[in-house]
Structures are given as C-alpha cells and as structure tokens.
Amino acid sequence: MSHVSLSDVSTYLPGEPIGADYYARFAESDDLRDNLMFRAPSFRHHVAPEETAADMIERAAQGLVDRHGRDVVEGADVLITHTQVPDMPFYGGGGGIAHRLGMRPSWVLDLHNGGCAAFVLALNVARTLLTSGQGRTALIAIAQNAAGQVFDQPGVRRKAQSSVPGDGAAVGLVTVSDRSPILDVECRTYGEYAGDMTLAIDPPRKWWQPGAGEGSIGFTESKIAKVLARGNRQVPEVALAVCDRIGLPAKDIDLLVTNQPNRVFLRNWRDALEVPESRHLDTFDECGNLFGAGIPVNLERAICSGRLKTGDVLMMAAFAHAGDFAGAAAVRWGGRD
C-alpha cells in the first residue's frame, strides 16, 4: 500500500520586514519587559490592514501552483485550514479559502485547537483521511495574522509581548505517494491546561462586548513559568515518542523544525533532543514567533537553502497555547518533484 507523503510546501511573508526599533519606540514600563519570553527578534512581518487570511493563503499557494500546476491545487480532495485570528468570528475560513483556490473538496476542516502545532495536527488528519480512502490529495493552509492585528493595536503594542510575534502563511501539499512518506505522528491533548491562556482587557469585558479596552494575552510571571515548564517538557516528549516508534535516536534527526516562541525554547528543545544547532532550523530573528506558520515557513526555508536533503529524516514538533496540545511528525524527505 502506498504511503502518504508531505510532498511540498509553499509560503508567504507579508510586507517588508519590520525592525525591533518599531516596538522600542512604543515600549512603556512593563513588569514583564525583562522576561526571557519577550526578547525581541531583529525583524518580523505584519499583515497589511486590509489583508485577509484568504489573501495570505492564496499568495502562499502560488508556489504550489507554479511547481505542480493549478489542477493539483484545484483538484485536492481535502482542505484543512488554521487561521490564528479568523476574519469572521462565527465561521472558519475553510469555505472561503476553498473558493479562492478554485477547489471543490470533499472535506473542508478548520482546526483551531492546534495553535502553534496546527501543521502537525493537520498532517495527522490528512494522513488519516487519505489512508482511509477519502482522496489522494490534501492541502494544509495555515495563516498567522495576529501580529499586525492584535499585537499592533495602539495600546497593546506598548507591552513587552507585542515585540515578538510576526505574520506569515503557508500551504502544504499532502499526497498518496511514496516520495516523502510521513513516518509517524504523535498528537497529545492536555485539556487540563486549556483555560490557562486568557484574553486580558482593561476594563474587563467579554471579547464580544463593546468597550474601549484592547485585548491582549493575559500573561503573568506565574503563567509564564508554567508555560515554560510545559513547553520544555512536551515538545521533546512528543518528538521522542515518534523517534522511539520509527527506531531513530533523537541525536540522529537530520533536521529538527519546531515552532519558535522565543530563543529560550529553541535552545532547550535542541539540548533535550541532543540535536546540534546546525540541524535545528529557525527564522526567529527574521520573522519572530510565527505561531502555527512557524513549522511550514521554516520547512520551506530548509528546502530552498538545501538544508533538507533527499533521504533526510525531518522531525517537526511543537506545542500550542499554554500547553494544551503538542504534536510531532517525522517525514523522510524525498525532494521536490
């Protein structure tokens, strides 16, 4: 029986890079200013004011169209999407994205719980559907658009947390083939942590209620300590679970690609897995925290730069939100068609 492969990925970064001095000029006294979680990257990108998630994904998909033809994109049987900030609160973007890409898929799924690990979760869903005979091709579309919308609000941009996020989008192509087989996937839900990521508004109100206060992430020193402990533990755990099942010592991973919340996590994860920095690719200083788009953006960077070679075992791993979800996936890369 044929395997299911991650055949290609294409990405998009909006606008010109924005330097760290952009936030430095807005920064005010903040109890969390010196926290290691919020050490700013050198650059990041911001979604344009009128740019929608569908716009970003259409632009990201263009690379797949150029390399594989429009029929491959339009004829995909499955579309799986994740948008950090949905353009409309009542429904996901899957239907609109399918229309924008000219698709008539049998399956359209919006995944919101995957967060920064959404690409791994979507790979698992796509592999399950294609293995069960629900089609031969799936697209995974990820849009991270919170940096230029939520974190660039006039009141929120003064906070330390706002200097880290960046925006970007990616579309992955998953096919029934043996070229770049998905070797194994591990997904874990930690529901007990689901309420630990909160929206803080001053004065307090529900997010949908009218009011003057702007919403930001409700970080405190205590919450940050918990998230650091969970993230440091969860990402190596899921990666090691996959390594164990495919019979690969973690230190022999050819390329590690993770989400990239900050430099501390990046260092701790590769140390825990005994993967040298040369085999752990990130774009944190160029793009900041890309949330769910981090893994596919870095993956395409690795492909284009030659860091990921034919025959290499790629390990993707991430955790989401305050630690309520984590996932890892291994792929034996067969090169682009």
From TrEMBL:
Record keywords, A-Z: Acyltransferase, Transferase
Beta-ketoacyl-[acyl-carrier-protein] synthase III C-terminal domain mapped to chain residues: 243-333
Beta-ketoacyl-[acyl-carrier-protein] synthase III N-terminal domain span: 113-191
Protein's GO biological process: fatty acid biosynthetic process; secondary metabolite biosynthetic process
Pfam families named among the record's database cross-references: ACP_syn_III, ACP_syn_III_C
Example of a GO MF term: 3-oxoacyl-[acyl-carrier-protein] synthase activity
UniProt protein name: 3-oxoacyl-ACP synthase
